[in-house]
Amino acid sequence: MLSSFGVIFIFLIFALLLVGVAILAAWVVRPSHPTSKKLSNYESGIVPEGSPWILFNTRFYMIALAYIIFDVELVLLFPWALSFRGLGWFAFVAMAIFVFILFLGLFYDWAKGYLDWDKPKPYIPKLSDFIDIKK
Question: SS3 for 116?
Fold first, then answer.
């Protein structure tokens, strides 16, 4: 008879084999037609322009971080909603405070302008920006 660790070990081996078979099947079945357009770098479907050595707008990162924070916190609402009837008023008030704090964070991001989606023109540095060239 297997111990608890033996059962876990068998499940671990089964999981690794399942993942390996899935990756192998995907590698065999997928089409592979590389072209220059498919191999080029792009960001959200925007055609790259200029050199990649430009100052990158941090707004992309701020939007992504705000989304991840609010998404993870919103996931906490689902278990609460499923067991809402048995929790009582204390849980309702606690979740109301939690949702209020979420809205405060959303309004803070909105007030700071993190949710504005303006596409700024990329700044391409020139050599004259770094070196004082006198004629």
Answer: coil
The helix-helix angle for 89-112 and 59-75 (nearest 10°) equals: 170
Residues whose CB falls within 8 Å of the CB of residue 95, separated by 6 or more in sequence, listed in order: 77, 80
d(CA 133, CA 16): 61
Check if the beta carbon of residue 56 is closer than 8 Å to that of residue 121.
Answer: no
CA distance 64 to 69: 9
Nearest alpha carbon to residue 102 among 76, 131, 134:
76
- The 3-state DSSP class for residue 46 equals strand
Question: How do the pLDDT tens digits run along the chain, 135 residues long?
Answer: 678 888 999 999 999 999 999 999 999 999 888 887 777 766 566 666 777 677 766 777 777 888 888 888 888 888 888 887 788 888 889 888 988 988 898 888 888 877 777 666 667 777 777 777 665
73, 66 in Cβ contact below 8 A? no
